[in-house]
Amino acid sequence: MNILITGGCGFVGVNLVKYLSGNDYTITILDNLSTGEKDYIEKLSLEKAPNIIIDDIRNEDAVARAVKGMDTVIHLAAQTSVVDSIENPRESWDINVTGTVNLLEACRQNNVERFVFASSNAVAGEQVPPIDEKMIPQPLSPYGASKLTGEALCSAYYHSFGLKTIALRFANLYGPYSDHKTSVIAKFIEWIKAENPFTVFGDGNQTRDFVHVDDISQAIQLSLESQKSQGEVFQIASGKETSINDLIEILSEAVEKQLQVNYKPGRKGEITRNYSDISKARKMLDFEPKIELKEGLKRLL
Ligand SMILES: NC(=O)c1ccc[n+]([C@@H]2O[C@H](COP(=O)([O-])OP(=O)(O)OC[C@H]3O[C@@H](n4cnc5c(N)ncnc54)[C@H](O)[C@@H]3O)[C@@H](O)[C@H]2O)c1
Predict the structure, then answer these.
(1) pLDDT per residue as tens digits for the range 156-172
(2) Is 185 in the pocket of ligand 1 (CB under 6 A)?
(3) In terms of CB atoms within 10 Å, which of 17, 122, 165, 203 comes out highest?
(4) 94 and 7 assigned to the same domain
């Protein structure tokens, strides 16, 4: 199977390339290296090293060239920061929507069979958890809106052109190769390394669904083979609710000392409770998260 992975030099991409290595896949990466690093891939020293094309998904010609001859496209490249999308919504749209259209169009014109789209829980917005695929999405940010548009485009390209699309809504991911991320676990690890106290906005009782990046790779690999999930959207998560205070306790146990926390007033617009119902992915994709948070954090540390 010839696979193009956009954004393959980023956090999810590098972990995915590592996870898929050893299988009968020929992998090409398309990445503009805006946040990702070529070094991450080169240092994996894989027997079958992926071909890396350094270009931008906004460049229609470059995308058309990269997609030629592919059986499957896994589309990870994106402007991934909620904060950046609020500062510059047009850029978020250009990368996350126009970039996605460029890829879908190239897939349509080159008879690519399958398209796996990295969506996000951010499409859901404020909801009473657990979040599932049937809730009416209410994105709170341009980032969330751009991902929801990506899901809509995937549905349209499946129903209009038969491209086998699958949209996976990732929860809060953690794992190696995430030093450049501003997500809560990446920040906490950075502060542990620097021996800095943690800063937590609010009382720390807010909850999230933390899922190890290898479980995300598992879901993506299942999507490559699945015969019954075309045109569908799936929540991909641990399915477990963990508070920030619980997370700090788990980390304190792992580093064998009580980590110090400065609590600051909560930020406006922050979601209080968030976790996913993954029963649809369990049923239709045979997805089963394998890495418990305690174990995953230990490995990461
Ligand atoms: N990390 C998470 O917690 C999380 C949660 C939900 C969804 N996602 C989604 O998963 C995907 C991967 O996220 P990540 O955490 O690996 O982010 P990342 O920033 O580590 O990786 C994104 C990659 O895309 C590349 N890229 C960005 N803009 C590009 C462009 N215009 N053209 C070509 N390449 C470009 C970057 O250089 C980088 O290598 C994204 O679509 C993101 O929205 C991530």
Answers:
(1) 999 999 999 999 999 99
(2) no
(3) 165
(4) yes
